[in-house]
Design brief:
2 domains, Lipocalin, 14-stranded antiparallel β-sheet, 14 strands, about 400 residues
């Protein structure tokens, strides 16, 4: 009797004789309706006995009764009832699989598959995964491969300048005005990662990059030609200011190691990626190192058949110092080296502001594929990252 009642309800809904909310919820295929009704009866039998025993079947009264007690019925009954209602964005917006989640389950409630069997984690990583699954959490696939293009523009702080006039940069000076130097870098990274624990991801990246620096230089003649100006301090050569803009271009390769600490509750999450990178640049002889920390907080939501999406905000800490080298031509009419003086330079640069803000999103199409984008702004640094990840 209950089976025919549920099937009748579904058929009526499909025939547009009830509200839009109910009509959009139920499939019109009668076999689907019978399967859904059978499942609902089986999963809600205890709840019917507890809450709706005095309700007379017919005219959707049993279904209405169960839905009236939706906050009290068992999780299996709730899942069955969801097939008889249209999606509700506010109600169904819940934590997703970007980080470990409860998927609308209470902590400690078993994580069961479609057949009601205990879910068995099939991977070796992360450690403690089965314990977490048995608590009701869901986990992302443990291994990932990603391609990440990036672009960064930032102002620099320069120090430790060494110059050489018509020769190598072997004379250290401190009398130069640098103006507002800046650099633009483009990079392409390959990222490999694995979840070692449910809360700890480790990763490495390898990549290539290229960049262009813009370094205004300004010298007083008396500082640039001290030997001449000691003898003739009022000579035009000595009272003049010389300026030029150095535009060294460079390219190189880098490798990094990092960890990502992550946790979530309800539909919110926090993450703390920490990265340490080593970079080889073609215009210098030393390896450049950098430390990057990007704490973030965000929220996740279910997009139904289109997967799940996370939006987040946070901040980026970047500490990077690099020596660059190049040369620039100065117009020095009447100078001791002729009308043009070639000035070789070597200089240490670091990012002017260590911190800036970030906004971004991550869209999981399914358990395997996801895309992300992240923009940094504020201070004297602007950056943009994008990427596609395959998890397995």
């Amino acid at each position: 009797m209950l089976l025919s009642h549920f099937v009748m309800v579904g058929t009526v809904l499909a025939q547009n004789t009830t509200s839009d909310e109910e009509r959009d919820a139920v499939p019109v295929d009668r076999e689907q309706l019978e399967r859904a009704a059978t499942t609902a009866i089986e999963n809600c039998a205890v709840d019917i006995e507890q809450f709706c025993i005095d309700v007379t079947s017919g005219e959707s009264r049993m279904l209405a009764c169960l839905q009236a007690y939706a906050d009290k019925v068992s999780p299996t009954c709730t899942q069955s009832l969801s097939k008889w209602r249209r999606p509700d964005v506010k109600r169904d917006f819940h934590t997703t699989q970007i980080y470990p989640t409860l998927e609308n389950r209470d902590l400690g409630e078993p994580n069961l598959d479609e057949d009601g069997e205990r879910v068995i984690w099939k991977y070796k990583l992360p450690f403690l995964a089965q314990d977490v699954i048995d608590l009701g959490f869901d986990l992302p696939n443990p291994y990932g491969v990603a391609i990440i293009p990036a672009r960064i523009r930032q102002d620099l702080t320069l120090q430790n300048l060494a110059i050489g006039i018509n020769g190598p940069a072997d004379q250290e000076i401190d009398f130069v005005d640098f103006g507002i130097p800046s650099v633009e870098n483009s990079a392409l990274q390959l990222k490999l990662d694995a979840w070692i624990f449910p809360f700890l991801n480790v990763f490495t990246t390898v990549g290539v990059f290229d960049g262009d620096a813009n370094i205004p230089l300004k010298f007083d003649g008396v500082d640039l030609f001290p030997n001449v100006c000691e003898i003739t301090p009022n000579a035009p050569l000595c009272v003049r200011t010389y300026s030029a803009v150095a535009n060294p271009s460079y390219e190189g390769t880098n490798i990094s190691l990092g960890i990502n600490l992550a946790m979530g509750w309800d539909r919110f999450f926090v993450a703390l990626p920490v990265t340490y990178a080593w970079t080889d640049v073609d215009i210098i002889d030393t390896t450049v190192t950098a430390l990057n920390i990007t704490p973030r907080i965000g929220m996740t939501g279910d997009m139904g058949d289109r997967g799940s999406v996370a939006v987040f905000m946070g901040a980026t800490y970047l500490r990077a110092e690099v020596d660059i080298a190049g040369q620039v031509a100065l117009d020095t009419p009447g100078g001791p080296n002729g009308d043009v003086t070639t000035l070789a330079f070597r200089i240490s640069q670091r990012n002017k502001d260590r911190w800036n803000y970030l906004l971004g999103f991550n869209w999981d199409w399914n358990k395997n594929w996801s895309v992300m984008a992240e923009a940094g702004f504020g201070g004297s640094r602007e950056n943009f990252f994008a990427g596609a990840t395959y998890r397995f």
